[in-house]
From TrEMBL:
Keywords recorded for this protein, A-Z: DNA-binding, Phosphoprotein
Name of protein: DNA-binding response regulator
GO molecular function, one term: DNA binding
Alphabetical list of PANTHER family matching this protein: TRANSCRIPTIONAL REGULATORY PROTEIN DESR (PTHR43214:SF42), TWO-COMPONENT RESPONSE REGULATOR (PTHR43214)
SUPFAM superfamilies tied to this protein: C-terminal effector domain of the bipartite response regulators (SSF46894), CheY-like (SSF52172)
Length: 203
């Protein structure tokens, strides 16, 4: 029986090592690559094909969800398994929208992760029912542009720099930020970013 080749993208070295060790206890699973960031994962995928990408969400640079979106576009045959510490509605909904094949919490039993990987390779989707129901209860109100502007604001960029990064006018950026603040019931752009991040809508 051919083994299932897996790439792990996880910025915490100890967690990445533990995931690798647990998965390689299974006879049919083989970890063929490890990455500490989305950029490293993409570079590895350009050199080696894998069956399954197992990725964290919160990593330096691009998030695991942004990585999943890029992998889905460039390597549509690669199965996407997200593992995260954070049970946030926005994360699950975004993962569903991207067509992620499995979404699990890191405290799930290791055999559950191994089983999820096998099921995704067989063409099935694996998402915890409670996470699914929770995700359906709270929709992300932000547009893509509002989210982009808010994300840059959270990183400390002022309106002029945000406008330059997004190739927009400063007035348009102010409008996007104002809309985001209003939708989230926030006091200012930083408060809006905090609320959006807590709900998993900023990634």
């Amino acid at each position: 029986m051919r083994s299932i080749d897996i790439l792990i993208a996880e910025d915490q070295h100890l967690v990445r090592g533990a995931l690798k060790a647990l998965l390689e206890l299974e006879e049919d699973l083989q970890v063929v690559g490890e990455a500490a960031s989305a950029a490293e994962a993409l570079a590895l995928l350009q050199r080696q094909s894998v069956d399954v990408l197992v990725s964290d969400i919160e990593m330096p640079g691009s998030s695991g969800l942004a990585l999943a979106e890029e992998v889905r576009r460039r390597w549509p045959g690669c199965r996407l398994v997200i593992v995260t510490t954070f049970n946030r509605r926005g994360y699950v909904r975004r993962a569903l929208d991207l067509g992620v094949d499995a979404f699990l919490l890191k405290d799930a039993p290791s055999e559950q992760l191994a089983d999820a990987i096998r099921r995704t390779v067989a063409g099935r989707r694996v998402i915890d029912p409670e996470l699914m129901l929770d995700a359906l209860g709270d929709r992300d109100p932000l547009t893509d542009r509002e989210r982009q502007a808010l994300l840059l604001a959270a990183k400390g960029y002022n309106t002029a720099h945000i406008a330059e990064r997004l190739c927009l006018s400063e007035g348009t950026v102010r409008n996007y930020l104002s809309e985001a603040i209003s939708k989230l019931g926030a006091h200012n752009r930083i408060d809006a970013a905090r609320i959006a991040r807590q709900r998993g809508w900023l990634y």
